[in-house]
Structure formats: structure tokens, C-alpha cells
């Protein structure tokens, strides 16, 4: 079954500017690695029907159009970051163009403050829209490598599920990042407060990572700092094996 959000998403992606010159010459993953990494955000049972975008030397390109609800992509919130995620149909037409836009700004060399200001202008101009309705974005990968402004370092982030929560803050839901990333797994908290904000719930296990293991040897960053995760021995062993 085809979903009506996909033609609209393709039009929105086509309106985005081409990939700028990469700041600090951020390395590209092989297409097979990037596809496997993007799909690793989803439960394995949902992957065969998912659509996939990957970053190429000409920008983000859709390499697979599935007939399911989810669209997978690897965001860059830093030139070294790799943040695989898969929003559902309710969010893809808004979230995917936003991810591509912000990732391009990273590769262009904009600072976090510059990116935030530019994003707010896009929101004010109506270019960026909230998700069409309630929904989720999966981030279950064993390989979530995000740049932490607080830590000033690349960190490995616990597997989690994100629920769309536009313009909601932690006070409204009684959220606590400290609790949600600590021993009280599943406790909700807000990230990316604003039009593309999420309620986060950390989960116990990562998704199956065998395709990443097979396709990404030597390509993923060597990250030792893990946020919000009591990593199981098998997950830790796999993550270590794939790193350079």
C-alpha cells in the first residue's frame, strides 16, 4: 500500500538546496554502510518496507522507496556525527526535510547558534512544518553517535523511541532528562524543544545490528562516552568490533 505523504515528501526534498562544500571534509560512508546504519534505527520486522535516504557527494538521495510507514535517514548534527532515525508517515513529510536542512548546515560549517537561528527563520516563514499528527520516530540503533554541546564531544546515545511533541516542554509533562537517562528507564523527557520537539523514552535493547556489522567495518567513529545506556555485553562487543 502506497502512502500519500511520499509524493509530497519528494517535492519538499527537491526544493532543498544542493549539498554545500563539506566543512572539515567530513567523510562519507559507503552507500551500503549508510543504508544499513539508517535501517538499524528500526525494529527488524519493519525494515523491508521502509524508505531510505543516504548522504552522497551530491547531497541526500533517496535510494529506496518502500511501501511501509517509515522513512530512515542518518542525520549529522556535527561533521563526525551519525544519528540514524526513522520517522513514521505522520512525521516524515515534516521531519525528513528538516533533518536534511539541518545536516546541510552542519556540513556547510554553521555553528549550533547559527543553525538554530536559521531554523527559527524557516519556521517563521512557514517552510518548516510540524508533524501531521501523533506518531513516533525510532532510534533503536546500536550506533547512535551524536555531538553533545554540553560534553563538547561525540557521544554514543542509548536506544530510544521519540514521540512527536511540537512546542511542548519538560514542565508540561513533568519530564526529567536526568531520570530518563539514569536508572529509571522509560521516564519521559523532552529534546529539541520547538516545532520538531520529541518526548523521549529510552528502551532496554538495541535493534539487530548484523547488517551494520557486515557493511560498516572501519567506517564508524571510535566513541567511548555513552549517554543513558547500560549496554549489554553483546551490544558492547559488536560496537567495539565495528569501530576502527
Key structural traits:
244 residues; alpha+beta; eight-stranded mixed β-sheet; 8 helices; 20% strand; globular
Give a structural overview.
- The chain has 244 residues and is of the alpha+beta class.
- The chain has one domain (5-242).
- Helices cover 32% and strands 20% of the residues.
- The chain contains 8 helices and 11 strands.
- It has helices spanning 5-15, 31-39, 89-108, 112-124, 170-173, 177-180, 210-215, 233-242; strands at residues 51-56, 59-64, 71-75, 83-87, 136-139, 145-148, 153-157, 160-164, 189-191, 198-202, 226-227.
- An 8-stranded mixed sheet has the order 2-1-3-4-5-8-10-9, with helices on both faces. It has a 3-stranded mixed sheet with strand order 6-7-11, with no helix packed on it.
- A hairpin with a 4-residue loop joins strand 6 and strand 7 (153-157).
- It is globular, with a radius of gyration of 17 Å.
Number of domain modules: 1
Strand sequence of the main sheet, in spatial order? 2-1-3-4-5-8-10-9
Global morphology: globular
Number of helices: 8
Q: How many strands appear in the DSSP assignment? A: 11
Topology pattern, helix = H, strand = E: HHEEEEHHEEEEHHEEHEH
Q: How helical, in percent, are the residues?
A: 25-40%
Tell me the fraction of residues in β-strands, as a range. Answer: 15-25%
Mean pLDDT: 87
Cα separation of the termini: 41 Å
Class by helix and strand content? Answer: alpha+beta
- What are the segments in which pLDDT stays under 50 over at least 5 consecutive residues? 8-15
Largest sheet: 8 strands, mixed
What Rg do the Cα atoms give? Answer: 17 Å
